[in-house]
What does this fold into?
Amino acid sequence: MGVTSDEPIQAYESLRSIFTGVKKRSKKRQQDVQDAFSPGRDPLHMSDAFREMTGTLGWDPSLAEAKLFVEWPLFVGEGIADHAQPVGIQDELLVIQASSSAWATQLRLMRHELLIVLAEKLPEVPINAITVLAPGAPSWKNGPRSVPGRGPRDTYG
It folds into this structure.
C-alpha cells in the first residue's frame, strides 16, 4: 500500500486539532475570511453611522430644530441674536421673543428676510411663518396682594 499525498496533511491536521484545539478551516470559513477583506467592507466613519442612525429613527427634524435654537446667532447674526431669541416651533410657525417693543417691531418688518435666510441655511426645518412677541410687563393680577380693578395705568408710560 502506498501513501497518498493527502495522508500526511490529514495526519498533521488531526494532530494539530488534538494539541492546539484549532480545527481545520472549512472551505466556507476560508471564503468568509476572504470576503471580510473585500472592497466595501471598511467600517463607517462615526459621523456617517450617526447620520444613518438618526435618519432611520426619524430624528432628523428634531435635531435640525435643536440646531436652530443652539446656533441662532449664526443664522441671524449677533446683533439680532442679542435682542431676540427663538422660543419654539409648532406647526411650521417659529415664535421669537424680542427684548423690547422696538426690536419686536423691527423683527416683524424683517420676517420675510428671516424666512429666506432660515430656508437657505436650514432647509430640513419647515418654517412658513414667524411670530414675534414683544416683552410683556409684569402681571399685577395674581399674588397675595392683588386688588380687583384696572390696576396701575401710568407706571410704564
Remarks:
- The chain has a mean pLDDT of 78.
